[in-house]
Amino acid sequence: MFGSRAKTTMPTAPDALPGRETRPFTVPTTHEVLGTPLEGPWPDGTEVLYVAMGCFWGAERIFWQLPGVVTTAAGYIGGFTPNPTYEETCTGRTGHAEAVLVAYDPTQTTPELLLKAFWENHDPTQGNRQGNDVGTAYRSAIFWTTPEQEAAAKATREAFQGELTRVNAGSITTQLAPAQDVGEFWYAEDYHQQYLHKNPNGYCNHGPNGLTCPIGVANLPAQTDVLPPA
Q: Which residues touch 157 (CB under 8 Å, ≥6 apart)?
């Protein structure tokens, strides 16, 4: 998962790898932990948020543990290459970020609570890297699909920047954008899905960063401390 092959400059569409018309690998039909469909269909009313916070292995585990989450999946978003592979994405020449699809029940959780977990479990100030993982594929990003998610993304970003500023920890570099503007989410290979459930001692560079995002805590207080140590 380390970044020796990764590029730190985003490619342009003409320079990106060409990709292919169909998926070159299989994807499981069922979430290994939650037992729900990985690619749907999901219950009526399910909403989807996409987040990127470095390597998708640890990021996905954070979200499948949260109350109200219907399913999660590892994949690639924000680039140009159709049906990319992991090896292609690691070169930086597809433009994609390693990301997690989070499908959730909005009657059981909120975008604020999901994004609270996002901000508190990685370093959103590092630009095109996350720890030892270097390259545009490891950038921090939030891609929303609803107006409520957009509002939550902007509000939680502002709130968490206040915390970073308070401790002189730098400025947020997280990319914020509508999912419809950054292209399709492409599911990752089967071995990446729920990787840390299948490989409990596998590589993970996610966990509490020592700061608290103050947005959303009052709404569902019982759901604010749901993550065991990574």
A: 119, 142, 172, 174, 176
Q: What is the pTM assigned to this prediction?
A: 0.91
The tokens for 48 are 């989807």
CA distance 142 to 133: 18
Is residue 38 within 8 A of residue 56, CB to CB? The reply is no
- Residue listed under structure tokens 């308070």: 166
Is residue 196 within 8 A of residue 204, CB to CB? The reply is yes
Q: Walk along the chain (230 residues) and give the pLDDT tens digit of each residue.
A: 444 444 899 999 999 999 999 999 999 999 999 999 999 999 999 999 999 999 999 999 999 999 999 999 999 999 999 999 999 999 999 999 999 999 999 999 999 999 999 999 999 999 999 999 999 999 999 999 999 999 999 999 999 999 999 999 999 999 999 999 999 999 999 999 999 999 999 999 899 999 999 975 434 434 444 454 44
Q: Which residues pair with 99 in a beta bridge?
A: 75
Give the Cα separation of 137 and 96 in Å (integer). 6
Q: What is the 3-state secondary structure (H, E, C) of 78-127?
A: CCCCCCCCHHHHHCCCCCCEEEEEEEECCCCCCHHHHHHHHHHCCCCCCC
Among the listed residues 124, 85, 132, 100, the one whose alpha carbon sits nearest the alpha carbon of residue 196: 100
Q: Tokens in use for 44?
A: 């009526």
Is 90 one of the annotated active-site residues of the chain?
no
Q: Which of 55, 90, 204, 213 is catalytic?
A: 55
